[in-house]
Design a protein that fits this description.
The protein has about 325 residues and is of the alpha/beta class. The chain has two domains: about 170 residues, 2-Layer Sandwich (Nucleotidyltransferase, domain 5), CATH 3.30.420; about 100 residues, 3-Layer(aba) Sandwich (Rossmann fold), CATH 3.40.50.10190. Helices cover about 35% and strands about 20% of the residues. It is built from twelve helices and 13 strands. Strands 1-2-9-8-3-4-5 form a seven-stranded mixed sheet, sandwiched between helices. The longest helix is centred in the middle third of the chain and has 23 residues. GO terms for molecular function: 3'-5' exonuclease activity; DNA binding; DNA-directed DNA polymerase activity.
Amino acid sequence: MTKSKKNSIIDFPNEFVVVDIETTGLSPVYDSIIEVSALKVKNNQIVDSFTSLAKPSGGFMPLFPSEDRDYLYDNDGRPFYYVSEFITNLTGITNEMLNNAPDLKSVLNDFFPFVADSIIVGHNVSFDINFLKANISELLNENFDCNYVDTMRIARKLFKDKKHHRLIDIVDYLEIQVDESKTHRSLYDCEITLNCYDSMKNLALESYETINAFTDLFSKINYLNYDPRSLVSESESIDETNPLFNKECIFTGTLDKLVRKDAQQMVVNLGGSCGKSVTQKTNYLILGNNDYCKSIKDGKSNKHKKAEELKIKGFDIEIMTEDVFYNLIGLEI
């Protein structure tokens, strides 16, 4: 039996599409998709593929132009760029490559029917899906609603004694050979993810005998034993100016749009931390929909009441809804 919460499922389906994107940054609101790739898989065989670079809708004007940058120039001779040196060094994608690429709307017009009604598989794939949902909604006026399997969630269960669960870490744990010069290009990352998916499926069967026995580990009973304080950042770099840096966040109730653990991991990736209960050290309390359930006395959870008490006493704590939390971190889903 597949364990699911909203669109996130834990399973090993026989038909799915592996998806990966490259972007100019971490925010679907302020950053752009620059490459989209997908592999369609049926019965352990790749039956189709999709890949394309995508030209961002606008560029950036450098305040202090550098002579050694690969700038592009507008009709007035002014320099501009689509991607930073960091992104170019990470992915190998240059400004010139993007300038010659189709625009994102054209790319998504082809990509959307390619993945329509498919289960999506990816590593930390909620990141990719959030970008795709925002852009498909804005550019195509379509809803990108899909069930998805996040291989990072599977990896955390299979390698629970390991500190990191980035794709590069899973490749190392599974002893999969990769060409590091090709990583951070979306099609090659799709291929790596598929290899990890297949290997982790075999490992789950070896360790637990059946897929059902493995997915049962994700039941709510087991989730109660999970401690968010044990989470570590999966990010290669952290923007210390973001509003969650060095802040403690507590979640209460059921989130509508993300699995709670994924939201907590997002906080940690931004340099924040998560706890199990509201204390004087708590900076943000994020309310899930259960906080408005009539079965809860006064319509508020104990965490909610505690946070209000601390706020009245002058402690630095803010109480916000799930949507306000996403707005705070620049995430549109």
